[in-house]
Structures are given as structure tokens and as C-alpha cells.
Amino acid sequence: MADPGIQNRGVVPIPAPRRDRVQSLDRALDVLETLAHGEELGVSEVAARTGLVVSTAHRLLAGLSDRGYVGRNPATGRYALGYKVMELAGGLEARTAALRAAARPHLEALQRATGETTNLVILDADRVVYIDQVEGSHSVRMFTELGSSALAHTTGSGKAILAHRSAEAIVKLYPASREPLERLTSRTLTSVEALRHDFLRIRRRGYALDSEEHEAGVTC
């Protein structure tokens, strides 16, 4: 699904741990996501950004380093993602290769017709993940980092996909207990009823809009 680019803020939201999940696994994933932006971080910085105590952050970093998922710079003592992560990413890239190949001509056609950045996304639970992109030709343009994700109910591409899901799937994804849905701007739709009305409009006109619902001042 093509969607003019939504700028990636580079912030990893750390969700509150659920009781039915393994806490140590959640914490290790929080560490990896914190390092995912590419900069090297010290133990104290990782602890501060993940909400962990320093000793726990150090233990997790050491374990991830032993497995190759985190690397430590011997000159600075700071940490970054390790090359082992590339093996995981390579498998995912191969899995989406056919979809990207099929969608690429359509992304390029949309870009030529509009001059805007076009993106291919997939729905992953309640988020959309950006897996391909054709950059716009305008001097001022929005962009999204490939591999980043956004809340589906706040984006045009996400709503375009959700609008064609069954009513049962929407209830499962957005049970009443989740309301109000996360708000990113004053225009974000935060109720399932509001989303249903928007889904109806989307199906009628054949396309979806993000009217400053993901980022103030950006409509796409």
C-alpha cells in the first residue's frame, strides 16, 4: 500500500511489560530497540533510555554481546548493534522480496504521477512497517526510514489496510478495553467508532487520508 512518507521521529516507544510475557526477554528487546538507531551508547545511557537499573542493563548487554547481537567498542566501552542482527534482517528481507518486486512498478508509477515519496507497508498487529520506498522528486519532501513502523490507526496506509479487514478482526485488534487509542496529535482518531466511520469513507472513495493524525502539519 503506497503512502506519501511520514517522517520517522527516531523514537522507540517502550511498552509496559505484560504479565504473561517473560520480563527478561522484554528487557533484552528493549535494549536492542534502543540501540537500533545506530549510535553507540554507554551502559548508563542504555539504562536511562530503557528505564532499567544500570546493573541490569550491563548484564543484558553482556549477554547480547556474547551472542553477537550487540558489539562493544573496546576504545570507548560503548555499545552498538552487532552484525548478528543482519542475519535476522536478511531472512526477513528474503520473505518480503516477492511482495516488494510485485509492488515496485506501482510505487514508481505513483511517484511519477505525484512527485511524492511513495511507500510500501505491511500490517503487523496494530502497526504498519515500511518495507520499500521510492523517494519523491520535490525539493521539500517527507521520508520514512525503511524498517520503521507506525501505529496503523494514525496513518493513511494503515487505515487503508484496516478498512478492508473484517469487523471481527477489528474488534480483536481494538477491543473496547484499549480505548482511547493512543493519540499522537489533536486529530488522531482514538475511538473504534470513529475509525469505523472513517473506514466506511475510505471504502466509498477508494483511498485513505492521514489528516494530521500522525504528525501535526502533515497531511498525506
The CATH H-level homologous superfamily of the largest domain: GAF domain
Beta strands, count: 5
Helix percent band? 40-55%
Question: CATH architecture of the largest domain, please?
Answer: 2-Layer Sandwich
Number of domains: 2
Shape: globular
Share of residues in strands: 5-15%
CATH topology heading of the largest domain? Beta-Lactamase
Distance between the termini: 13 Å
**Structural classification:** alpha+beta
Number of helices: 7
Rg is 19 Å
Following the backbone from N to C, one meets helices and strands in this order, namely HHHEEHEEEHHH
Mean pLDDT: 88
| Neighbour order of strands in the largest sheet | 3-4-5
Low-confidence stretches: 1-19
Pick out its properties.
220 residues, alpha+beta, Arc Repressor Mutant, subunit A, Beta-Lactamase, three-stranded antiparallel sheet, two-stranded antiparallel ribbon, 7 helices, globular, disordered N terminus
